[in-house]
Amino acid sequence: MASRGRPPLSSEQVAARVQAYCARYGVTIGSEGLPPFPSGRRETPQHREWLTLYKALQRLRRRATQENAGSAGAGAAPQRKGSRMRTPP
User: Fold this and answer.
1) Is-contact 63 5, C-beta < 8 A?
2) Residues 6+ apart with CB under 8 A from 29
3) Cα 66 to chain centroid, rounded
4) How far lies 42's CA from each of 6, 50, 64, 75, in Å?
């Protein structure tokens, strides 16, 4: 079966996209590794591109924390999502 979803971006690819955005709109990277939010420019191409960068950076950070958590608890059982009710024996 073919894999589904978005292919993961590397940190270098995300950094390159952020640099391209900064060059295109003449802004600098902030303390969190992201350009400043384009206030007053909602629903513009710049705003949509900023949202895309924000989501890509969040996915990258989430994957990094999941990988770190996975390696720290390699022997632990995976968490299940869903009902917390116990089933009768």
Assistant:
1) no
2) 18, 22, 35
3) 12
4) 25, 10, 30, 46
Q: Which residues of 13-48 are buried (b: 16+ CB within 10 A; e: fewer)?
A: ebeebbeebeeeeeeeeeeeebbeebeeeeeeebee
pLDDT per position as a tens digit, 34-74: 999 998 888 999 999 999 999 999 999 998 888 888 765 55
Torsion sign, CA atoms 16, 21, 22, 28: negative
Distance CA 44, CA 65 (A): 32
Between CA 85 and CA 72 the distance in angstroms is 27
